[in-house]
UniProtKB/TrEMBL annotation:
Record-annotated Amidohydrolase domain positions: 57-557
Keywords: Hydrolase
Domain of life: Bacteria
Pfam families membership: Amidohydro_3
EC number(s) given by UniProt: 3.5.-.-
Enzyme type, top EC level: hydrolase
UniProt-recorded Gene Ontology molecular function terms: hydrolase activity
Protein name in UniProt: Amidohydrolase
Length: 559
C-alpha cells in the first residue's frame, strides 16, 4: 500500500496495539486504519502508517489491547441514565450502614419529591426481610423507596406508600403484588412494576419507566423543557456506555418516545453509541397493537438507530418467587410461579410477531418460562415456516436437559448475563440458590452447557440491574465457579467471553457482516484498552479499562 494523495489517507489510525480482531481468519495484528466511519485496513504498524496523511489522527495504543467495540445485548438505557443520579446501595449491608447511606443522601437532596435508592440486596438486613417500619426508623418524614438490583422488587417507607395511595393495598395484574403486613396495611415490599410504579412515579421520572412499565407513550406529551431534560438523561446513559467501551446497545425496553429522543440527539450532535430500541408488548395488549412495532421497524432502520424487535416479559424473578418453574421452588414446595401470559397467549403472540418478520426477545428466568417461550418459537416456525428469525430468550437462569438442545434446533439466541449468577459478582448466594435447589443447580446460568449444545450465547449486563462494565462481565464469565463440586463447569475462556460481547452480539442483531470484528470494510467501532487483556491474569481483569472508545470512526470516549 502507498499513499498517492490526501484522498487516500486515513482519518484515524491506531498503532502499537495488540489488536485482537475476533476474526478467526486474521486473529491478531498491530494496527488499524479508519476512514469515513469504516475500517479500511488492518495489519502491521508499517503497513498502516503508510495510510497516514497530514490530517490523520494517530492513536498510540501503547501496547494495550485493541478490540471490537462492545455490543451490549441487554440493557435499559433510559432508566439506567436516570439511575446514575439515584442513591447507590450496592454492597451496603446491615441496618446501620443502610441508615447512614439513606440519611446522608437525603441531606444532599432537600428538594427531592421522592428519594430513590438503587441496588439494595434482598439480604441487606440478613435473614430479616425489609419492611416499611425499618425504613420509617431511618427516614420517617420524607418519602423514600429503594430497588433491589434486579429491579423487580422495591421497598418503600410509610410516607411513600401513603403518597402513592397504596398503603391500603390495591388489586394488581398477575405476578404483581403489594405485600400486605399482619396489620392489614402494605408492609413495604412491592413486587414487580405495577406494585411499585405508583411510588416511583412520584420521583418525577415516570417517562423514564414507560418503555418498561407499559410500552406506551407519555401522556400528556412532554413539554419542550421535559423533552430536553429527558434527552440529557439519555446523553448521560450514552456517555456511560461510551466510557465503558460500548459502541452498540440492544435496549430491552422501549417505546416511540425513546426513539424520538435518540433521533433528536442524533440530529443535534450525533449518537455516541448505536442503539436498537424494541417495541414492548405487554399482556394487556391485543395483537393488532403490533402494528406499532412494524411502524417503528420501518421508521427507524439505520446503522445508528433501529427497532425491529418486540420485547416481552414471560415471568418475573427467582428472588420473589415470580419466575415460572417446571417443578415447584425448592423452598416453596406448593408454588411454581405465575406466568404473565398463558402458554396459548404466548404462542399466538410469537406466531403474530414472527409473521411480521420481527425479532422477539422474551424475559424468561425460570425453566418453565424458558420452555413455554421455546414452545412459542416452535409454534411460530410451524405456522410461518422456518426462517432466519434469531428469536431470543433473555436470562435463562434455569433450564432443563430437555430444552437445552432446542436453542440450536430452533435457531434461538441465548441471551445471558455473566454478572447475574449468585456469587459471581454482586448478587449474594442467598436466597437465590435455595430457591433453585441443588437438583437444578447443574442447569442454572448454564451458558457453557448451552454453547456446547450449539446455541449462540450472547452476553450483557442488563444495566442498571448490574454494573455496565463489560470487562467485569468477562471476568465473571471466566472466573465462574460451580456452587457444588458435582455441578458442571460453566466458565468461558477469555476469547469465548469476548465473543459474547462482540461477534455474538452482532449476530443477535443480524449485523455480523458489519460489526463485532475488526476487519476491513467493517464499521469503525473499536476500543483501546489500558492493558493487554490476553496477558492479564483472570483475577486482575477488573483493572483493565477502556482508554479510547471509537464508534463509527468518531472518538466517543478518551480517558
Ligand atoms: Zn432487562
Amino acid at each position: 500500500m502507498s499513499v498517492t494523495g490526501a484522498g487516500h489517507s486515513a482519518d484515524l489510525i491506531v498503532i502499537n496495539g495488540r489488536v485482537l480482531t475476533m476474526d478467526d481468519g486474521n486473529p491478531a495484528t498491530e494496527a488499524v486504519a479508519v476512514k469515513d466511519g469504516a475500517i479500511i485496513a488492518i495489519g502491521s504498524r508499517a503497513s498502516i502508517e503508510e495510510l497516514k496523511g497530514p490530517a490523520t489522527k494517530v492513536i498510540d495504543a501503547k501496547g494495550g489491547s485493541v478490540i471490537p467495540g462492545f455490543i451490549e445485548a441487554h440493557m435499559h438505557l433510559f432508566s439506567g441514565g436516570a439511575e446514575l443520579a439515584h442513591l447507590q446501595l450496592t454492597g451496603i449491608h446491615g441496618f446501620e450502614a443502610l441508615q447512614k447511606a439513606i440519611r446522608d443522601y437525603a441531606q444532599t437532596r432537600p428538594d427531592a419529591k421522592m428519594l430513590v435508592g438503587q441496588g439494595v440486596d434482598y439480604t441487606v438486613l440478613g435473614s430479616e426481610r425489609v419492611t416499611r417500619h425499618h425504613l420509617d426508623a431511618i427516614l420517617p418524614d420524607r418519602p423514600f423507596c429503594m430497588a433491589a438490583p434486579d429491579h423487580h422488587t422495591m421497598w418503600a417507607n410509610t410516607r411513600a406508600l401513603e403518597m402513592a395511595g397504596i398503603l391500603h393495598g390495591r388489586t394488581l395484574g398477575p405476578g404483581n403484588e403489594i405485600v400486605m403486613g399482619d396489620d392489614g396495611l402494605a408492609g413495604g415490599e412491592l413486587r414487580e412494576g405495577e406494585a411499585f410504579g405508583p411510588v416511583l412515579d412520584l420521583a418525577g421520572e415516570s417517562r423514564v419507566r414507560l418503555g418498561l412499565a407499559t410500552g406506551g407513550e407519555p401522556d400528556p406529551m412532554p413539554t419542550a423543557a421535559e423533552r430536553a431534560a429527558d434527552r440529557d438523561i439519555m446523553r448521560r446513559g450514552l456517555a456511560w456506555c461510551a466510557r465503558h467501551g460500548i459502541t452498540s446497545i440492544q435496549n430491552m425496553d422501549g417505546n416511540l418516545y425513546q426513539l424520538e429522543l435518540l433521533a433528536e440527539i442524533e440530529a443535534e450532535e450525533g449518537l455516541s453509541c448505536r442503539v436498537q430500541v424494541p417495541f414492548h408488548y405487554k399482556n394487556f395488549m391485543t395483537l393488532d397493537m403490533l402494528d406499532k412495532a412494524s411502524d417503528m421497524a420501518v421508521r427507524y432502520n439505520s446503522e445508528w438507530l433501529s427497532s425491529g424487535m418486540v420485547k416481552v416479559f414471560y415471568d418475573g424473578v427467582l428472588d420473589s418467587w415470580t419466575a415460572v418453574m417446571v417443578e415447584p421452588y425448592a423452598d416453596r414446595p406448593d408454588w411454581v410461579g405465575e406466568p404473565l401470559f398463558t402458554p396459548q397467549q404466548f404462542n399466538d403472540l410469537a406466531v403474530a410477531v414472527d409473521k411480521r418478520g420481527l425479532q422477539i426477545a422474551v424475559h424468561s428466568i425460570g425453566d418453565g418460562a424458558v420452555r413455554a417461550v421455546l414452545d412459542g418459537y416452535e409454534a411460530a416456525q410451524k405456522a410461518n415456516g422456518k426462517r432466519d428469525s434469531r428469536h431470543r430468550v433473555e436470562h435463562i437462569e434455569v433450564t432443563t436437559t430437555a430444552d437445552v438442545p432446542r436453542f440450536a434446533e430452533l435457531g434461538v439466541v441465548a441471551s445471558m448475563q455473566p454478572p447475574h449468577p449468585p456469587g459471581a459478582m454482586d448478587f449474594p448466594l442467598e436466597p437465590t440458590v435455595s430457591r433453585i435447589g441443588p437438583a437444578r443447580w447443574p442447569l442454572s446460568y448454564a451458558w457453557r452447557t448451552l454453547k456446547d449444545a450449539g446455541a449462540h450465547v450472547v452476553f450483557a449486563s442488563d444495566w442498571p440491574v448490574s454494573p455496565i462494565d463489560p470487562i467485569l462481565g468477562i471476568q465473571a464469565a471466566v472466573l465462574r465457579k460451580p456452587w457444588a463440586k458435582s455441578d458442571p463447569d460453566q466458565s468461558f475462556s477469555l476469547h469465548e467471553a469476548l465473543a459474547g460481547y462482540t461477534v455474538e452480539g452482532a449476530y443477535a442483531e443480524f449485523t455480523e457482516h458489519r460489526k463485532g470484528m475488526l476487519k476491513s470494510g467493517y464499521m469503525a467501532d473499536l476500543v483501546v484498552l489500558s492493558d493487554d487483556i490476553e496477558a492479564t491474569a483472570p483475577e486482575a481483569l477488573h483493572k483493565v479499562h477502556p482508554v479510547t472508545t471509537i464508534c463509527g470512526g468518531k472518538i466517543t470516549y478518551q480517558a
